[in-house]
Amino acid sequence: VQLQASGGGLVQPGGSLRLSCATSGAIFSIDAVAWYRQAPGKQRDLVASKSTNGRTFYTDSMKGRLTISRDNAKNTAYLQINNLKPEDTAVYYCKTSLTYYDTSRLVSSDFWGQGTQVTVSS
Q: Tens digits of per-residue pLDDT, 76-107?
């Protein structure tokens, strides 16, 4: 199983980005998806998550500017970030909780993407 995060980049304040997290491999089901971010010198913090039943979480500091979504047919999760601010500059990581085929059995585990850099600057 592999996760590939993409969509980061350099954007001006007030701009928008859509981050993607594509999951590939012998996947049985994706149970939940989440996005974290880590700014230089700081811990990695949860910014948004979406469970299988559709329940979503958004961190208070970004609430109203985030939309997390998933395309089950493509095994891809997205994070839309609007009205970006310089303090949003960080590496954004996706995490997927999923069940996959391991030879003759099913295994549930969390997987992390490699991170995508978001830089907000004029």
A: 999 999 999 999 999 999 999 999 999 889 99
